[in-house]
Fold:
Amino acid sequence: MTDTQRYITVDDVSFGYEANQLTLDSISLIIGRGEFVAVIGPSGCGKSTLLRLLAGLVEPTRGKLTVDGQPICGPGLDRAVVFQDYSLFPWMTCRDNIVLALEQAKLGANKTERRQIALDFLSLVGLAQDGDKLPGQLSGGMRQRTAIARALAINAPILLMDEPFGALDEITRARQQDLLLDLWQGGQGDEKAGKTVFFVTHDVEEAVILGDRVMVMGTRPGRLVRDIQVTLPRPRTRMGSLQHPNFSPLRDLLLNELNLVVDELLLPGSSHGAHI
Amino acid sequence: MNSLDAKSRLYGLMSFLVIVIFLAGVYGLLTDVLRLPNAVLFPGWQKIIPAFGLSFKQLLEGLASSMGLLAPAVAASVLTGVAAGVIIGLRPKIEAVLLPFIRAMNPLPSTMLIPYAIAVMPTFWFSSWIIIYIGVLWPVLMNTLHGIAMLEPRWIDNARCLNLTGRHLVFKVVLPGAMPQIFAGINAGLIRSFLLLTVAEMIGSKAGLGYFVQYYADFAKYDRVIVGMIWLSFIVVLIMTLFDLLKKRILYWTKKR
Structure:
């Protein structure tokens, strides 16, 4: 395999908060440069823990994680993280949150330039007018867009997203998915700008709409069950994907894999209520 | 601040004033008009108001003297308390060793140190200073530690993902995040400081508002004593109001969403 295909590797990684109770058991996976990987699984399967391992926020009990051949030791600005509704400091305006990240990433020559860059990225996500607002003054969707703007602004090659739209209502979530598709696909093709995304979600449709690949995780202990290629053409839109003939079979396959088809909560018609 | 908020605050202030005027009126009725209680112990407004005019210069001097003691002592407590809190709070192993000690010191009344402080310190001013300093230090330190311990783990994760360390971590994340709790500590410390100030001034001082009250009480001049108490209450309310304004200013981001 070439280096491009083996950009992020997770090699036989196990993790447990307590000695004899594993949260993650022998996870191995390889992510290529520029790939969009969605990870899905029931709650408690350790998908967020896997993301925290990749972010360097926790260390594996066993095994090795590498990015571009280098072992992951601690968090780094080469991996931008978007959490579920808490990526921003509430005492800083949206713009200052981004300016701080830029400062840390040593981007922009001075304060004025950094403020301009921050504004540019806020405009990119449609928040040009809201830079001076505090995160608490924005809606959940706007906060997540700001968090995405910050992640993009520091120009990290890797985006780690931990259920970033999980707390949003249905319509807002759909819009954020389209925005993310737009932004990500806009950068692909360009070898340098193309970002590798690791996207954790509990929403089957979201995984199919966004991902090149969907990893299905099982629980107790957390492990990889299946790795499914999403055979939907790029560039995608949310609507286009939903209407594509390959969509339903993929979704059904995933639901089967999750062994949750029988679970009333995840039936398509009633799934909405479960997320709001 | 929207108009409803301002309206209801004005309403609150008005009702407060009405209650104060009503109570003052009842007092005046009992003393000046009906002359029911002992006239020496409970002088009427007819005596208190002229006494206020006569003491005005003394009250201002007393205020200056009291503030000259209180402000440096409280400022020193807040600065060292918050600094020590940050230094200890970011080192969990040291904190585990010191916390039981700090917990034990906090409730001890520093007034018990007064005789010893007077003996040990070179001047009265220093002995009062150290008593106020120690009394205010513990609640500030305790609450700073508490605030740091209660920092949201997600803020810490976030800071780590941005590689924030050292000075940046302290001033951009730790202090702002712990600030609500730090202000609760300063609030408790301030309340304690007024108590310590007046006690210290009544015991050994030749100046200040506590001394003013004690001095005239010794001569049974209760009109002046009441003037001193009203003046002191007014100053305390004023300081706490200013403190609340400062708090709102600095904790702008905790306003309800």
Notes: Residues 29 and 50 of chain A are 11 Å apart (CA to CA).
